[in-house]
Write a sequence for this structure.
């Protein structure tokens, strides 16, 4: 995918798209007004909310890319290579009737943990506050699902042309254990994944037994009988 300074070439082959930085899709009225003002100023023809709870501002000529990023400030995300593309969260206990855990709170802690890290391929993370799994956690590279007994952590899922349901790795974790496990899984993938290999293909290549013997068996809060 061709890029100019962190903006992505669009279908027309001559204009670019810029992603907003709106973690978990949470925005203030000020954020929305600022993004709208940038859209007006640069006559951006397409502004769309994406499935990753971000917005893409599309149809930007190459010569405006740097200026749009500058005007967006922290609300813009340059796409600079394989990294965590988004940490998606549902409403969870913040406001959903069904929420068992604070999905937005955990997503923000994970966001801080993975910021600026590079991986063999892009990584998508979905945090759901209950087992209804509105963030489609089973189809994310890293998935988290809240239950009344703590967090379930999943690894190696994706959608796309060859979908894969993620492997459940641990159950009943506290928030700090869940964050710790996400960090360990991503470190392991960073170290052993091949270039451009998504976590789904990585898990198909190495298998759950290798993950158990080389990583999970060393983590005290994981019950290997349940993996
Ligand atoms: S996953 Fe559960 S807590 Fe989250 S929005 Fe859906 S129903 Fe609500």
């Amino acid at each position: 995918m061709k890029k100019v300074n962190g903006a992505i070439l669009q279908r027309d082959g001559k204009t670019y798209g810029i992603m907003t930085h709106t973690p978990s899709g949470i925005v203030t009225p000020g954020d929305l007004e600022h993004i709208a003002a940038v859209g007006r100023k640069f006559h951006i023809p397409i502004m769309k909310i994406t499935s990753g709870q971000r917005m893409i501002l599309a149809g930007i000529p190459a010569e405006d890319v740097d200026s749009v990023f500058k005007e967006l400030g922290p609300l813009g995300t340059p796409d600079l290579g394989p990294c965590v593309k988004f940490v998606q969260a549902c409403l969870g206990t913040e406001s959903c009737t069904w929420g068992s855990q604070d999905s937005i709170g955990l997503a923000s802690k994970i966001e801080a943990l993975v910021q600026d890290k590079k991986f063999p391929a892009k990584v998508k993370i979905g945090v759901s506050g209950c087992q209804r799994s509105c963030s489609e956690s089973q189809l994310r590279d890293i998935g988290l699902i809240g239950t009344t007994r703590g967090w379930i952590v999943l690894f190696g899922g994706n959608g796309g042309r060859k979908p894969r349901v993620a492997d459940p790795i641990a159950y009943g974790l506290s928030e700090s254990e869940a964050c710790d496990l996400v960090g360990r899984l991503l470190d392991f993938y960073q170290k052993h994944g091949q270039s451009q290999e998504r976590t789904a293909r990585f898990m198909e290549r190495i298998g759950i037994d290798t993950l158990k013997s080389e990583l999970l068996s060393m983590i005290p809060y994981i019950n290997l009988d349940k993996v």
The mean pLDDT is 95. Residues 90-92, 96, 98-99, 103, 128-130, 132-134 surround iron/sulfur cluster (CB under 6 Å). The chain has two domains: 3-77, 84-226. The first strand starts at residue 3 and ends at 4.
